[in-house]
Design goal:
single chain, alpha/beta, Arc Repressor Mutant, subunit A, D-Maltodextrin-Binding Protein, domain 2, two-stranded antiparallel sheet, elongated
């Protein structure tokens, strides 16, 4: 039993699919199949139940996977710790977020400051973020919704007010504030369920006893303001976006409700070794969003 066999097994167990595991490992499918067969022969039990080309992790495989995950994670942490101590390389950082647009300035600044660090980014829902943290595929997740579960450590990066954006030609564009109850007939541009904008919209409307009218829903929050400006509807936008979209043909209103806010947390697995590269990224992220938050609050103070 060698480390390569264990890594192959972990990938197949996570995906319960030989071809997808081979694709992720960037090796030939027959090599993965032979490795799993040899491992099962060495252990003396099948690790997967097979029906045709379908495989499912069985009770032996589940028990073995828990130990393999723990062993490989410890070895990966040990490698990072030794590399940090020896100064052998600049390391790597993997991050995930619901949308990557708010991270562009941070990522550019980090790349300029630490050009030797490899950075990998993933766009995914909170549910997928949890899976990536548990599998250690990511070092950090930028979460705008609580990520439930034990063993997670979170640093609050931002608390910001969420505004209502409307087309400039919309009758509401001349107003400064509005209550959610006055928006029950308005068509909204929003994200699919699972994203923070949709969760907030449904929470605000729950108090009205109505459901929001959804004119358009998608997976890319960064497209929302284009659709609003095109006149397809109105939508919730974080106040950070107001400064970035100062030239866009949009009107901005505050919502008369005390909980129309978005939080942004930097979440990681608390038992994972935090490499030097990851510590540098965390510190830069905290400083970056602290500065952005101050600028945003100053701009909001100028709104009526």
């Amino acid at each position: 039993m060698d480390l390569l066999s264990l890594r192959y097994f972990r990938e197949v167990a996570r995906r319960e699919h030989i071809s997808r595991a081979a694709e992720e490992l960037r090796v030939a499918q027959p090599s993965v199949s032979r490795t799993i067969t040899r491992l099962e022969a060495e252990l003396g039990v099948p690790l997967f139940d097979r029906q045709g080309r379908t495989i499912r992790l069985n009770r032996y495989g589940s028990a073995f996977l828990a130990r393999v995950e723990r062993a490989l994670n410890e070895l990966d942490d040990a490698r990072r710790e030794v590399a940090d101590a020896a100064g052998l390389d600049d390391g790597s950082v993997a991050v995930a977020a619901e949308t990557l647009l708010p991270l562009t300035e941070l990522l550019a600044a980090f790349r300029a400051a630490y050009p030797g660090v490899a950075v990998r980014c993933f766009q995914c829902t909170p549910e997928t973020m949890l899976g990536r943290l548990r599998s250690r595929e990511t070092d950090f997740c930028f979460a705008s919704q609580p990520l439930p579960g034990p063993g997670l450590d979170a640093v609050r990066l931002l608390d910001e007010e969420v505004l209502l954006a409307v087309p400039l030609a919309h009758p509401l564009a001349g107003r400064n504030r509005i209550a959610p109850a006055d928006l029950v007939e308005e068509p909204f541009i929003t994200t699919r369920p699972g994203h923070w904008q949709r969760a907030l919209l449904e929470r605000l409307f729950a108090a009205t006893g109505r459901r929001p009218v959804i004119a358009c829903e998608g997976d890319e929050p960064g497209a929302t303001h284009f659709l609003i400006a095109a006149g397809l509807g109105i939508g919730l936008m974080p106040s950070l976006a107001r400064a970035d979209l100062s030239g866009a043909p949009l009107g901005w209103l505050r919502l008369d409700t005390p909980d129309c806010v978005r939080t942004l947390d930097l979440v990681r697995s608390e038992d994972r070794y935090l490499s030097l590269a990851a510590r540098r990224f965390r510190d830069m992220a905290v400083a970056h969003f602290d500065e952005r938050g101050r600028r945003t609050r100053a701009a909001l103070e100028e709104m009526p």
